[in-house]
Every structure is written in C-alpha cells, then in structure tokens.
Backbone:
C-alpha cells in the first residue's frame, strides 16, 4: 500500500470496515469519553450517565437484532452498569469512574474472547492456529500477537484500577482524569499491537505514551512525580523522533509503509541496503527506549520511582507488553530480510540488558527503583524469545510477558500497601520483619518476587522455562547461559528481600500495612494468577502456541 | 536556471540563514524567532515542491502554534533571556556530530532522489490527500483524535490551578503520618510541607547507579 | 498550480522591501538628535513598571496557546475532508463525525474543567 493510493479522485475505495477486528477497543474508548464527561459533572453524574447508558443499550439492542449477540450484550451490560454505578454511589465520582473503567475492561476482555471464538479460531475447537485477520485495507492485523497483548493489557489495567483507587485517594491525586487517561492508554497499547503499518504504529505509540506522561505527573506537589513525568516526556519525545526518522528511512528504502510490503522489499536485491540498515538501527533505538533495553534504559529507574505506584505498576507490566508486541511484529514481519543483522544486534543487547539490570538491582535501596531495574532485566529475557526467530520464540515471548505482568502487579500491589502505611518511600529497611507484623502482605510479596525470580511453581518459572527453551532450540546457547546467570543474580536479591521480611525482627512501632478492599482484591487476584499460571500453564501455553500465524 | 530554481535558492537561503541564526544567537528569544523563520522557510520549500497543503499545514501548525508555544515555554520557565552563555562547552563534539549527520543525510538524499526533476513532480493535490486520509488511513486518523484528546487532558490537568493553590511554586510535599483521612465530598485539606522519610534522593541515587 | 502563488511571492517581496527600505531610508536621511526623553522605553508615557527579567509569566498564556494548537490541528484535518467530502459519502461523514465528536467531548470537558477561564 503506497502512501497515496490513487490519483483519480472520482473513484474512491471505501474500505470494508471489519468491526469485529477492533471491537474490543471500542468498549474502553467509549467508556473513556463518557467518564471524561462524568468527571466534570461534580455530583450530578446522572446527567451524563443516563443518556450515555440509554444510547449504549439502544446500540446493544440493535446489534443483537442485527446479528452479533455478544457485542450487543456487552453494550447493553455497560449501558445498564454505568447508570447503576452512578445510582449506587451517589456523588462519589471517582468510585463511579473506577467501576465504569473496570466494567469497560471486563467488557473488552469478553469481546476479545468473542473475537477469538468467532473470528480467530476458525477451526472451532481451540487447537487450530489462530487465523489472522486483516482489516481496514491492511492497516489492522488481528492475529495472535494482538490477541495476547489484548489479554495482557486489559488484565493489567483491570487489576491496576482497584490497586490504585485507595492509594490515589491517600495521595490526593487529581482523581477525575485518572481513569479516562488509563483507558486511553490501554486503547493506544492495543492499537499498537494490532497496527500493521509504520504510521499507525507511530500514532498509537504516541497515544499511549502521552497518556502515560500525564499519568506519571499526576502527584503534582511531589517533586519526584514531576521529575518522573518530565524525564519520561523529554526522553520519550527524543526516542519518538529517532523512531520516526528510522521509519522515514525505511520508507525511502522500500517505498512502502506497510509492514508486509517492507518485508518483501527488504529481501529484494534492488533495495538500497545502507538506507534500510540505518532505518533498522534507528527504529531499534526508538523501540528499545520503550521496552527499556540497555543502553536505552536510563529513564526507567527515575520514572518508575517517581510516578504514583499504581501507574508504575501499569507501566511496568503493560508498556512492556505493548512494546514487545511492536517488536515482534516489526522484526518478524518487516525485517526478516535483514535477519543476519538484527539477530546478533538484539542478542547482544539482550545479554547486556540481563546482566546490567540484574547487577544494578542489587545495589538499590528503594523498592520501586529495584523493581524498575528488575523490569529492565525482564525485558532482556523476553528479547531472547524475539531473537530466536521461530514460532516457539514468538509464543514464548507472548507467554513470558503475561507471566511477568502478573508477577509485577503482585509485587507493586504489596509495595502500594506498604507505601500507604509508611506514607513515604518504601525501602529495604521497611521490609524488615514484615513477616511478623503482616504475614499476608509478606507472603504475597514473597510469592510475587519468587515469580519474578523464576522459581517453581510460579508463573515466572513457566515463563522463563519456555523462553529459555526457545532460545536453546534456536541455537543461542550463550544467550541462555547468560540468562541463567542473570536469573541467579536476580534470585539472590529477590530472596534477600524475602529473607529480610521473614527472618528479621520488625522495628519498634512499625505500623501494620493497610488492608483496603480494592488493594487486597487486586493483590489477591495477582497472587492467584501467579500460582495458577505457574501450576496450570497449559491453557495459555496452548493459546500462545496457536498464536504464531502472522499477517504477512 | 528556471524560475523555480531561483525561488528555491532564495527560499533555501532564507531557511539556512534562519537555521544558522538559531544556533548561533546568544539571546534565547532571538533564537526562537529565528526558528520560526526557518520553519516558515521550510513551508516555502514545500511550496516549491508543489505540496501546497503541506505548506499550509506547516505554516499554520508549526509557525502559528509550535513556535508560539516555544516562546511561551521560554518565558514561563524563566529560561535565561539575555546574553548569558548558553553553550555546554562541547562545541567541537557538536560540530563533529552534526557535520557527520549532515554528510550522511545529504549522501542518502542525493543517492535516493538525486535524479528526480522537480519540474516533473506534480505533487499530490489536497483532494488526493483527502481521499488518502479518509479511505486508506482511517485507523491512524481516528487514533489521532485520541492523541489530541490525551494532549488536551494533559494540558488541563497539569496546568490548571487546583483549589487552595496560590499559583506560586509548590513545595515538595508528601502526606505525613497523622494526616487526617479525607472524604470525597470534602475539599482537599491544607497541604503539609516537608519530605517523607529520609531516603537517598532520586538525583544522587540516579547519579550513583547509572 | 505553483504559478498561482506568484502574487504571494510578489507580496512577500514588496513587504520586505517596504519594511527594510523605510528603516534604511529613515536611518540614512533622518536627523539624529538624541534626547533622553526620546530614548526612554515607550510605555504610553509612563515609566515601565514591571521588572521583566524576574517576573513569572502566568500559565494561562500557555493554556491558551496549547488549546489553540490542539483545535488548530483539528481544523487542519477538516480541510482535506471538506475538499473531497462528496466523494467520500456517508462513510467519510461518519469518520469526520467520530473525529470531531471525540474532540467535542474534549471541548466539553475543557469547558467544565475551567480551561477557558482566564483567571
């Protein structure tokens, strides 16, 4: 697809809009818009919620009569649910928003499942491969990567909302815009996972990045939050500029921005190679910033430490998922012609990342900073799956991102509980003796840390196992060895934390961490998922295995 | 030497002069104004290349809004306006990097487009661009509305004065032990100044590790 | 098509010539008799009050510029649609309604949040 399709303005090709390909995104989009209007109503939310609910119910009924039952049912459910929430919690705007956002994300997950059953899984029995779907004239690629990223991102956002609700209240963060921005960010992340050409990738990247820049800076009176937002924004803008320049060079080299066309063009001899290679390098730099590969990781510790902790949790889990979705799609669809170049490059970057992240996490005193370095390390592990250019590698990366997400959310949830009690930064000292003052939080934190370290029977172990397996099968034994080494180092500091919690005596007068409903629910769900995915990974592993067919 | 070439040379000289002024002027506001001249010159280059819609967008968006925002940003953040030294004393390295970049870029561009005659270009008219946007590039277009929405929310959230703030610089605060819990219907209580517990500050921590 | 812009170029040239010329002529030909009153800063007859270097600009100017930029970009996208909206038919109208609708929600939100209040 060239940039300008035809020269004759009298013949217009109206693209057939396959609504099912982006149906799950519509729920958070509409809910974000409605919640934005609810945010300004200040006590009379019914003015907005009632008409919106009515419109949604009407649309749902029309959909049910036209054919697709599940989307119609979801629309009706949302249309009934939001006014019900407004009725149930009068004048509590942020609680209504949290419930509305949660309902929209549940609806999106339901729609993703419906999409899987009706569109993707054509064989019908869950064992066939996901058949990719092209929509909107090839701009949208609804395949396994999109499906898995949808699950990861929606699940992450769904868990983050109750985790952060009480926390935002405590820190008196401007709450009215948090949920709409969160939903906008979710929509951007899913859009980038389904994007099939460079321009859509760039715009979607900017959408979710911009929402995150604002979310990081919401604790307006905390200087670290301002620092985090500013650093993220400035460095993100530079990285986006580099990415865009790389995309422009790729267009110059190949004459097209569609990923499939770039893929075929790069295998031709007539493509100017130096331009394509330059474009590849610049794109790697730009995307490497987003997924925090070393040496493009310098923003991560300060940004993760300064941002409000629930936003950090969301960033740590979901941005990686979206970033790796783009990485997978770019490198496996558009760049296979340059494989001899980017496989060694990414492999070296992954090795450096794993070692550097693990080593630097050892010397951190602040827990959020330490988790930031651990997230850098995990980006390295996930890249192993990318550089083993195979179906196993693809499914391994997708699976790893899911397991990493649930582990990270659990860890950050426990940090949230501690931070709300301490009313300050949570460092290693605050963990002393937590096993005695609050065994539940200590237990869940240890479980999440074990998952991040990759010890059985947690989800992290299953993830690392699959990724290392894929790396070995692809012949990258040296990379897997480095990965194992880095895991050992990482396990050391995770276990040190667990040891501090259970083997040390608590300081005098240490308060018991907060146990609020949303927070406990969020942590419990994460912990449950960690155990479940670790003990029974078959369902999702099968899904991941079937997710390997890519849109060409 | 056709008329088009003459016009292009003039516009190119204007743009280059503006760019040189931007990086060499000692006054930051002069530099921002020279940047506006450079961007306007680029709009002229677009016109020479028969891309009239792009020239319009460039003038309206870049010169009309971005350059203005630049100037407001300079004035808002008390950036050094005056004859202070704005260098970072890295002139040699900067010259080397930008010179290298210039060589690479010009080589690339000449290799890629060196033999295309400007007269032969007809350039897409605004109608072709319109059809392309709305028939082919539907998804980025709708995503753009989300992007603008996010930008607007960000502008309002981050720049709006909250109730109780005086508009002066805010102190570093965190909630302290002993702060009363707040309900939704109450307004935000008075802020308590002071830091949280003693910790490694982010700046020195970052400088120490990175 | 480009020849349509020739009058613009002429206007540009004439404006530049007029501005430069008048300054040049006045500096060359006009008498130069400096006088402290003539050289003082023009502030409608009064002394300048504010110390420009240390005062802080209010953020409301920035808000105006930012809002202008966002709605300006929206307007820029309406131009190509307006040129071809007949060929695009109902589908194009739906797209444009969605685009402007989202930004309309943004507008209502901004009004409700006091983004348009000057103080």
Residues:
């Amino acid at each position: 697809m060239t940039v300008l399709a035809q020269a004759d303005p009298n013949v217009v090709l109206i693209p057939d809009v396959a609504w099912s390909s982006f149906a799950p995104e519509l729920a958070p989009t509409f809910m974000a818009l409605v919640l934005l209007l609810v945010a300004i109503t200040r006590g009379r939310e019914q003015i907005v919620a009632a008409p919106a609910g009515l419109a949604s119910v009407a649309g749902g009924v029309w959909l049910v009569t036209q054919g697709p039952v599940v989307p119609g049912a979801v629309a009706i459910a949302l249309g009934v649910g939001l006014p019900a929430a407004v009725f149930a919690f009068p004048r509590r705007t942020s609680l209504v928003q949290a419930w509305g956002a949660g309902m929209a994300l549940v609806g999106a997950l339901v729609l993703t499942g419906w999409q899987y059953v009706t569109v993707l899984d054509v064989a019908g029995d869950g064992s066939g491969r996901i058949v990719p779907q092209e929509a909107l004239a090839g701009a949208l690629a609804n395949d396994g990567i999109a499906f898995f990223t949808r699950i990861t991102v929606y699940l992450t956002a769904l868990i983050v909302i109750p985790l952060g609700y009480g926390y935002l209240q405590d820190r008196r963060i401007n709450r009215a815009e948090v949920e709409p921005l969160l939903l906008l960010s979710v929509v951007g992340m899913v859009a980038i996972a389904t994007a099939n050409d460079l321009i859509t990738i760039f715009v979607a990247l900017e959408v979710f990045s911009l929402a995150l820049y604002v979310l990081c800076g919401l604790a307006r009176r905390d200087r670290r939050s301002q620092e985090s937002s500013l650093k993220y924004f400035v460095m993100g803008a530079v990285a986006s500029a580099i990415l865009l320049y790389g995309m422009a060079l790729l267009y110059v080299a190949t004459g097209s921005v569609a990923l499939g066309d770039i893929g075929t063009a790069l295998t031709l001899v007539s493509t100017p190679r130096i331009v394509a290679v330059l474009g590849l390098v610049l794109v790697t730099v730009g995307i490497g910033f987003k997924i925090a590969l070393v040496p493009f990781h310098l923003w991560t510790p300060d940004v993760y430490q300064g941002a409000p902790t629930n936003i950090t949790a969301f960033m740590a889990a979901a941005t990686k998922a979206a970033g790796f979705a783009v990485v997978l799609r770019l490198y496996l669809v558009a760049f296979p012609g340059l494989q001899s170049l980017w496989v060694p490059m990414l492999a070296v970057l992954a090795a450096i990342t794993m070692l550097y992240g693990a080593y630097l996490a050892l010397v951190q005193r602040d827990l959020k900073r330490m988790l930031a370095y651990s997230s850098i390390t995990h980006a390295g592990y996930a890249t192993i799956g990318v550089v083993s250019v195979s179906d196993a590698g693809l499914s391994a990366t997708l699976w790893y991102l899911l397991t990493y997400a649930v582990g990270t959310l659990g860890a950050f949830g426990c940090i949230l509980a501690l931070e709300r009690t301490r009313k300050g930064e949570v460092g290693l000292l605050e963990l002393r003796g937590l096993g005695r003052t609050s065994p539940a939080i200590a237990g869940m934190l240890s479980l999440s840390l074990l998952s991040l370290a990759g010890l059985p029977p947690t989800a992290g172990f299953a993830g690392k196992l699959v990724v290392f397996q894929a790396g070995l099968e692809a012949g990258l034994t040296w990379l897997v060895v480095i990965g194992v080494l880095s895991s050992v180092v990482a396990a050391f500091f995770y276990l040190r934390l667990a040891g501090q919690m259970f083997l040390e005596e608590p300081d005098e007068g240490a308060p018991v961490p907060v146990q609020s409903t949303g927070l406990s629910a969020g942590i419990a769900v994460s912990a449950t998922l960690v155990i479940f995915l670790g003990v029974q990974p078959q369902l999702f592993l099968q899904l991941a295995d079937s997710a390997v067919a890519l849109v060409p | 030497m056709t008329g088009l070439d003459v016009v292009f040379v003039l516009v190119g000289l204007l743009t280059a002069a503006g760019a040189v002024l931007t990086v060499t002027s000692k006054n930051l506001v002069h530099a921002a104004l020279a940047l506006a001249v450079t961007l306007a010159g680029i709009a002229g280059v677009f016109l020479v290349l028969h891309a009239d819609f792009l020239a319009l967008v460039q003038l309206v968006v870049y010169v009309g809004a971005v350059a203005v925002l630049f100037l407001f940003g300079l004035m808002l953040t008390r950036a050094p306006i005056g004859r202070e030294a704005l260098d970072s004393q890295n002139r040699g390295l900067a010259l080397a990097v930008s010179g290298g970049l210039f060589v690479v870029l010009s080589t690339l561009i000449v290799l890629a487009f060196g033999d295309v005659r400007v007269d032969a270009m007809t350039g897409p008219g605004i109608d072709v661009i319109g059809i392309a946007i709305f028939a082919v590039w539907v998804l980025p277009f709708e995503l753009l509305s989300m992007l603008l929405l996010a930008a607007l929310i960000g502008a309002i959230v981050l720049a709006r004065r909250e109730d109780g703030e005086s508009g002066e610089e805010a102190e570093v605060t965190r909630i302290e032990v002993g702060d009363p819990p707040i309900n939704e219907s109450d307004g935000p209580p008075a802020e308590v100044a002071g830091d949280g517990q003693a910790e490694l500050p982010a700046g020195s921590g970052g400088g120490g590790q990175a | 098509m480009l020849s349509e812009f020739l009058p613009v170029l002429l206007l540009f040239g004439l404006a530049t010539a007029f501005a430069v010329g008048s300054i040049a002529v006045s500096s060359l030909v006009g008498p130069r008799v400096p006088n402290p009153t003539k050289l003082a800063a023009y502030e409608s007859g009064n002394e300048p009050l504010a110390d420009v270097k240390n005062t802080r600009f209010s953020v409301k100017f920035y808000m105006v510029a930012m809002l202008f930029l966002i709605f300006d970009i929206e307007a820029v996208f309406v131009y190509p649609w307006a040129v071809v909206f007949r060929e695009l038919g109902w589908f194009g109208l739906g797209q444009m309604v969605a685009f402007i609708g989202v930004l309309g929600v943004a507008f209502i939100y901004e009004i409700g949040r006091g983004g348009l209040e000057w103080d």
